[in-house]
Specification:
It is a single chain. The chain is α/β, with parallel strands linked by helices. It has a domain at about 15-65 and about 95-140: Alpha-Beta Complex (Ribosomal Protein L13p, Chain: A). About 30% of the residues lie in helices and about 15% in strands. It contains 5 helices and 6 strands, in the order βαβαββαααββ. The chain has helices spanning about 25-35, 70, 90-95, 100-105, 115-120, and strands spanning about 15-20, 55, 75, 85-90, 120-125, 140. Strands 5-2-1-6 form a 4-stranded parallel beta sheet. Helix 1 (about 25-35) crosses helix 4 (about 100-105). It is globular and about 55 Å long. It starts with 14 loop residues before the first strand and ends in a 5-residue tail after the last strand.
Length: about 140
């Protein structure tokens, strides 16, 4: 049997809409990362961009299981001595509710140039409204 590869110029990127209301952040991030990479398609090829554009709404209502809301720390380091900043997940949710989901998806993508390309195709919004109605994203259910 011959192996067939998709033609990069003929690949169409579907728009998918996901409602994150009440879904666990980590499990949802796995599903989103797979959609962005195209792993949910039958013609998945690692070196060809076959993934979808993903629009996530209600990111502010994503669920953190267990005691993560009060115990999980998000860390950033400036590179200088004493430059480590730690922020609780509850504070991050209050300041920027989309960061929790973006951070989780980013951690599940490959650590190379592909990650930046894929992250540009992820659109996350804290509420139910999004400006991508013209692209007609198809609502999809995420199996967790």
């Amino acid at each position: 049997m011959k192996t067939t590869l998709p033609d990069a110029s003929k690949v169409t990127h579907a728009w998918k809409l996901i409602d994150a209301d009440g879904l666990p952040a980590g499990r949802l991030a796995v599903a989103i990362a797979n959609m962005l990479r195209g792993k949910d398609r039958s013609d998945y090829t690692p070196h060809i961009n076959t993934g979808a554009m993903v629009v996530v709404v209600n990111a502010a209502k994503v669920k953190l299981t267990g005691r993560k809301e009060t115990q999980k720390l998000y860390k950033r380091y400036s590179g200088y001595p004493g430059g480590l900043k730690q922020t609780l997940a509850s504070v991050v949710r209050r300041r920027n509710p989309c960061h929790i989901l973006r951070h989780a998806v980013r951690g599940m993508l490959p650590d190379n140039h592909t990650r930046a390309v894929l992250m540009r195709r992820l659109k996350v919004y804290p509420g139910a409204e999004h400006p991508h109605a013209a692209q007609k994203p198809e609502p999809c259910t995420v199996r967790l």
